[in-house]
């Protein structure tokens, strides 16, 4: 059985051998940080090669050769899949952390034969999630508000500070929730933004107050007919 079984299960025999050789042994490799492990070997690629371009894009070294990573984020031409730059960078950071744990476990002689395969499965799920998150559907994006065009000769209105903004909000009658929902983020679906806003403490407090106010108004009974306080006096006989 290999002494680096967990690392080989996670990264493969060839990539594990390259990392150990570049670091100068298992001991020096296990003492690296996850960031150092991520950048290990980045200077060894040919300047004009596709792997060098990929390494420069992702700020990473030999880990870009991981079969697991390439399965999700790299095509057959050693090029990054369109629109997946940030997701691929996060995936490599996660891979470096898991790989370092496997290396440390193997270097210490800890008997845990399923650690590498367990981490491999865990990373597959995480990579799939990152891949889907990186695919931003055009229908989910929201356009920016149209810019205000200043015509020549017109006096530019002052935006004012925080107090002026509070006055405008008080005058237009908009609630805190309405103002929060009016702000948009590019690349985030409207449903996700709404869920994020509803988790805010100030929004929850406002909704609770509105519910209590509605409940109080419902308990109040309005008079169905007008009552004159002198009706009883008029009915008396003198």
UniProtKB/TrEMBL annotation:
Database matches in InterPro entries: Nop_C, Nop_dom, Nop_dom_sf, Prp31
Composition-biased stretches (Basic and acidic residues): 162-171
GO process terms (BP): spliceosomal tri-snRNP complex assembly
One protein family per Pfam: Nop
GO CC annotation: precatalytic spliceosome; U4 snRNP; U4/U6 x U5 tri-snRNP complex
Nop domain residues: 3-132
Region (Disordered): 142-178, 209-238
PANTHER family: PRE-MRNA SPLICING FACTOR PRP31, U4_U6 SMALL NUCLEAR RIBONUCLEOPROTEIN PRP31
The protein's name: SnoRNA binding domain, fibrillarin, putative
């Amino acid at each position: 059985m290999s002494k680096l079984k967990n690392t080989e299960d996670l990264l493969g025999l060839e990539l594990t051998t390259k990392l150990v050789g570049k670091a100068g042994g298992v001991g020096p490799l296990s003492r690296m940080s996850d960031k150092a492990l991520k950048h290990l070997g980045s200077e060894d690629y040919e300047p004009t090669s596709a792997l060098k371009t990929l390494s420069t894009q992702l700020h990473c070294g030999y880990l870009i050769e991981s079969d697991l990573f390439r399965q999700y984020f790299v095509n057959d031409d050693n090029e990054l899949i369109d629109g997946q730059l940030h997701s691929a960078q996060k995936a490599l950071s996660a891979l470096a952390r898991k790989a370092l744990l496997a290396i440390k476990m193997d270097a210490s002689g800890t008997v845990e034969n399923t650690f590498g395969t367990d981490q491999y499965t865990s990373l597959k799920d995480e990579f799939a999630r990152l891949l889907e998150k990186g695919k931003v559907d055009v229908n989910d994006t929201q356009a920016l508000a149209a810019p205000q065009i200043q015509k020549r000769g017109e006096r530019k209105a002052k935006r004012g500070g925080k107090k002026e903004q509070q006055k405008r909000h008080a005058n237009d009658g908009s609630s805190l929730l309405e103002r929060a929902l009016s702000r948009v983020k590019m690349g985030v679906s409207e449903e996700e933004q709404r869920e994020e806003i509803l988790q805010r403490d100030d929004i929850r407090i406002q909704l609770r107050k509105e519910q209590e106010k509605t409940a109080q108004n419902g308990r109040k009974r309005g008079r169905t007919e007008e009552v004159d306080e002198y009706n009883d006096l008029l009915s008396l006989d003198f």
